[in-house]
Write a structure and sequence with these properties.
Blueprint lengths: L8 H16 L8 E8 L4 E9 L1 H10 L6 H8 L6 E2 H4 L11 H9 L3 E5 L5 E5 L7 E9 L5 H17 L4 E7 L18 E6 L2 E6 L11 H14 L15 E6 L2 E6 L4 E2 L30 H22 L1 H5 L1
Parallel strand pairs: 6-7, 7-8
Antiparallel strand pairs: 1-2, 2-6, 3-5, 4-5, 8-9, 10-11, 11-12
Length: 328
């Protein structure tokens, strides 16, 4: 089954791009990185986000917590002092009342990423368990359009112009399906010249056009770090959180090096929009599937979640193993 005959080809293509980036980033040579999908800001969401990292600092970040930090936790952990200190002396003054910071200090302590106590005058004091490392090197945004015709290019142009002028990411790319023609059609479309173009063919990708290096505003440092933390927490395999893997028709089908959701009832690669609670073909797993450890205790749906979670963790560990290559 090909992407061109699927009900939602862009979703399957997006997962393949994420898997390629996880295995082979960067097109100019290997760079340690983690990959996420469907992340961004209130005003802009990207299909694929690649966070290039310093491997040693990333290992320290992973040792601090296997889970990501939301904006409030990040403020607390990032500014945690080495010695006991009143939280209002340690944290830069926020643009909202201090009383909203205290719950984040308690949450951070509950997760074991800081220590807290009641100090003099019954004030909440805290200190770091370990320093929050400077683990993010660059942020790269990728838009995925398997069929990048003139109409799709026009629809993307304004978004890409915004990405270039806003410069929240260090690079912006468009990934499209390779056609095998002597001149790929994507090169003929009217896209911003600062945007790179990738032609994806199976598990490989060729650079059709190199992107310009953008210069993020230093004032966006916190927003970029919040984005990186969300990428660290979610990865790109979190699509099962909004799908129905507990349906007897749900499958993960190998598509090259990626595992792509497939519906046996509809005989198609599906999307999060289609595989939802409103699906008329939904049938719950038979109870017998969830007993006696068949094939994994909890049933196939739970087993599929475990497979994707273990793959995400293996991908993280491969970043640690790339230290020597990165240093060279």
């Amino acid at each position: 089954m090909s992407d061109t005959t699927d009900r939602d080809p862009e979703f399957a293509f997006e997962l393949r791009v994420c898997r390629w980036a996880e295995r082979a980033w960067h097109p100019d040579g290997p760079r340690p990185a983690i990959v996420a999908r469907q992340l961004g800001t209130r005003n802009r969401r990207w299909d694929t986000v690649v966070i290039e990292v310093d491997p040693d600092a990333f290992a320290a970040r992973h040792a601090l917590s296997a889970d990501g930090f939301d904006s409030d936790l990040l403020r607390v952990v990032r500014h945690a002092p080495a010695e006991w200190q009143w939280y209002r002396d340690a944290i830069p003054e926020p643009d909202f009342p201090w009383r909203h910071v205290v719950p984040a200090v308690h949450r951070a302590a509950g997760r074991g990423v800081v220590e807290k106590r009641r100090g003099s005058r019954n004030r909440v004091e805290y200190k770091q368990v370990a320093p929050y490392p400077d683990w993010v090197e660059r942020i790269v945004a990728i838009e995925n359009k398997p069929n990048l015709d003139a109409s799709a290019a026009r629809a993307l142009a304004d978004q890409l112009e915004h990405d270039v002028s806003r410069a929240l990411a260090d690079e912006v790319w468009v990934a499209t399906e390779a056609t095998g023609r002597r001149v790929e059609p994507a090169l003929l479309e009217d896209l911003p010249m600062e945007v790179g173009i990738l032609a994806v063919d199976g598990d490989a990708a060729d650079v059709l056009w190199h992107p310009s290096k953008l210069t993020p505003d230093p004032a966006d440092a916190r927003q970029r770090l919040v984005l990186a933390e969300r990428a660290y927490d979610r990865g790109w395999r979190a699509y099962l959180d909004t799908m129905r893997p507990d349906c007897r028709h749900f499958e993960l089908s190998r598509r090259g090096m990626a595992l792509v959701p497939r519906c046996a009832a509809k005989e198609c690669y599906q999307s999060q929009r289609e595989c939802a609670h409103s699906c008329t073909d939904f049938e719950p797993e038979p109870p017998i599937w969830r007993t006696n450890g068949w094939p994994i205790e909890g049933g196939p749906g739970k087993g599929l979640r475990q497979i994707l979670e273990s793959r995400r963790e293996r991908a993280r560990k491969r970043v640690f193993e790339k230290r020597r290559t990165h240093d060279d």
